[in-house]
Design goal:
There is one protein chain. The chain contains 9 helices and 2 strands. By secondary structure, it is an all-alpha fold. It has one domain. Strands 1-2 form a two-stranded antiparallel sheet. The radius of gyration is 27 Å and the shape is extended.
Length: about 325
Amino acid sequence: MCPLCDKVCDYQKLNSSCVFAEITYLFDNPATVFFAIFMSFWATTFLELWKRQQAVIVWEWDLQNVEEDEEPRPEFETSVKTFRTNPVTMEREPYLPTWSRAWRFLATSSAVMFMVVVVMGAVLGTIIYRISVVTVIYGSGEQFLKKHAKIFTSITAAVINLVIIMILTKLYQRLALWLTNLENPRTQTEYEDSYTFKIFVFQFVNFYSSLIYIAFFKGRFFVHPGDASARNSAFTRLKIDVCDPAGCLSELCIQLSIIMVGKQLLNNFLEILYPKMYNWWSKRMHRSNTKNLERKYTRWEEDFQLQDPGRLALFEE
């Protein structure tokens, strides 16, 4: 088979892809069809049962028309300087003009699109990294690395992609909160809906762009071996990023597993371990400043040591 890179890479034997073919068969076999059918039915059933449970709770708590009667947010009332008379209640209320909402929406939409472009650039960077590392490994002469060059580059590229994903996620969460405050929605429901939409758009692109590229686009730009135009720039080198002869599914599984496992580990640390460590340290500092150590804590003292969940505490759930 053709070399993986120019000049330093040797021709590869087809039997070197046997391991990838065996890994691929673990996830791509006749049982996968039945699993996919089961998952589609399970997801639909779960969603419909969730809607039913939600309707039951809304009925029991008498919250059918709560959004129609929702009061404006205090932040909205204090920041808006224009007023109008409500045609229904005939009361004077704060009002955000259409032109003001339009330029706020344009500004926030531009910021969201810019962050999506940043994510695309990060994915492009990992692709160029994967191509360059193969060349470096084969140029080093290390036989063990040369033998496992494809697996090594796939794993390291996935780890780098995971690190970039988590950094951009933390950065964008603060940016999305700032953009939603800039929009200044009238009610708390509108505020949460706007914030949810921004987070969803970015998270979808951030977590799935690399997976979508590997699954549907990698290797589709390849024309023929020795294509000179593919060496003109770093961007056109995407054309020489091709799948293993056994297919891209093995690399897709590596990418998906590293992202899923790494994300769960980090989130569990941030949601469970970090709060416990913070509360333990806060309690320890409080006891060090307490003169009478035999006195029991009052309820307000125990609550004071807890962390503030914020107004969007349940958003992640």
